[in-house]
Write a structure and sequence with these properties.
By secondary structure, the chain is of the alpha/beta class. It has a domain at 9-100: Elongation Factor Tu (Ef-tu), domain 3 (Beta Barrel), CATH 2.40.30.10. The protein has helices spanning 33-38, 80-86, 126-134, 154-160, 179-189, 201-214; strands at 9-22, 25-31, 44-48, 59-62, 65-67, 70-76, 93-100, 112-118, 138-145, 163-168, 175-176, 194-198, 218-221, 237-240, 243-246, 253-255. The strands form three sheets. A seven-stranded antiparallel β-sheet has the order 4-3-7-1-2-6-5. Strands 11-10-9-8-12-13-16 form a seven-stranded mixed β-sheet, with helices on both faces. A two-stranded antiparallel ribbon has the order 14-15. The longest helix has 14 residues, at 201-214. The protein binds flavin-adenine dinucleotide (FAD) and FE2/S2 (inorganic) cluster.
Amino acid sequence: MCTEVPTPAIEPVVVVSNERVAEGVSRIVLDAPRTAGAVEPGQFVHLRISRHADFILRRPFSVHRARDGRIEILYQVVGLGTRALEDAVRDDVMDVIGPLGHGWRVPDGTKRALVVAGGLGAAPMGMLVERLAERGIEVTLAQGAPSAGRLLARELFDNLCSRAIVATDDGSAGLCGFVTVLSAEQLGRDRPDVVYVCGPEPMQRIVADQCAGAGVPCQVSLERLMGCGIGACLSCVVTTRNGLKRACVDGPVFDAADVVWDADGGQEGGR
Ligand SMILES: Cc1cc2nc3c(=O)[nH]c(=O)nc-3n(C[C@H](O)[C@H](O)[C@H](O)COP(=O)(O)OP(=O)(O)OC[C@H]3O[C@@H](n4cnc5c(N)ncnc54)[C@H](O)[C@@H]3O)c2cc1C
Ligand code: FES
């Protein structure tokens, strides 16, 4: 997975569907044959919401799934761009630059993986879980959300993971508490060969620390404000032990052990 990074290109895309799938979160399906055929788990697209001429800047979104020439994006409405995206209807035309960035890597010899997803952090995990399952890797998913109604992609995860456990802040599903309690338990219980994490940055950092303590390799997907998405504007820097890196081309997935947490303030909120 992700040994060769496909060349990104601009592709016109057509909206197939756009619907609410959880509280505050929608799924848009785009006809995008080139991107769908090239994207690897953990990569993203830079989307121009072109019905609205005032959106000069593109918005970055993880590709949740890619199949039959289509890509799926799970998105939360947080501002102007995502509000406009929510208004998009079937047959609207937009365009994407993609696939972009470096996605998840599968270390040689991996037999068991732990996937930890907090909130919108489930977005880049769909393709990952599909690919791990295809390779016969046993996947445990630990997923967290504020409430049961905000747990994403439950059906996909339940179908493909050997074990899918959840935590909610209000206790409406699974453990009442943070997903980091589940990740700590899982690390102690079935030592995985690798851990994949996405969600709010403080949560990613806690899981990274847990993995470092357990001696298990961990990958995190970091969110930064992105201007160009192709490495030119330096709006997306991440401080690593090997110097400053650009989340759009060197990430968004990084080895957790390389990340210098707090050095650049992280991303307010995260996913
Ligand atoms: C690699 C990558 C993958 C992403 N994948 C997804 C995804 O799968 N689903 C999803 O819903 N969101 C994802 N995001 C975040 C998404 O890009 C932003 O939520 C979106 O650009 C906000 O646009 P807006 O015009 O609605 O908000 P704006 O009006 O631009 O901003 C509204 C609020 O959102 C914050 N914001 C804006 N851009 C970002 C950003 N890049 N990251 C975090 N916060 C931001 C702003 O600081 C502000 O508080 C991803 C971001 C990155 C960098
Ligand atoms: S978004 Fe411009 S360098 Fe990363």
